[in-house]
Amino acid sequence: MPAETMLDPRYSDPEAAAGDWSEAVARLSAAEVYWLTTVRPDGRPHVTPLIAVWSEGALHFCTGPDERKARNLSANPRVALTTGTNSLSEGFDLVVEGEAVQVTDEGRLRALAEAYVKKYGEVWRFEVRDGAFVGDGGTALVFSVAPRTAFGFAKGDRFGQTRWRF
Fold this sequence. Notes:
Elements: E1 4-7, H1 21-30, E2 34-39, E3 45-50, E4 53-55, E5 58-63, H2 68-75, E6 78-83, E7 92-103, H3 106-120, E8 127-129, E9 132-135, E10 138-154, E11 160-165
Pfam families: PNPOx_N
Organism: Streptomyces lateritius
Protein name: Pyridoxamine 5'-phosphate oxidase family protein
């Protein structure tokens, strides 16, 4: 649970209420596509869409060890993961900021592999081997991002910006 929940009045309707973290978690769990922002070695941002699962208080994603995002994470683990809608008149957008930590525990990886299948179907079934996922595309490193700070953006009749700090 967050240590602090705050509605920012600068970006919120006067009648808006702070978002509930449990509802944000439900949205994070249900989302199908997320956008990951990492930092390149020269400081430029790198943004890419990916799939992820929410488990044990964190978002989890995977990437090949030679992909740009994995190379970025080896130098700088700070990330932002976003999800929501591209509509201005309805929906709820979420931003999760934290550090990506590689998951290598094989028991944990097996549980995450099953979570991928449950959420995305058999096409996303992975074997667990040598501290990583292994699938048709080769080896994939798995990362966990526990929120340090998260933001929720309510849209529609009552715009609101909630910040959760952990």
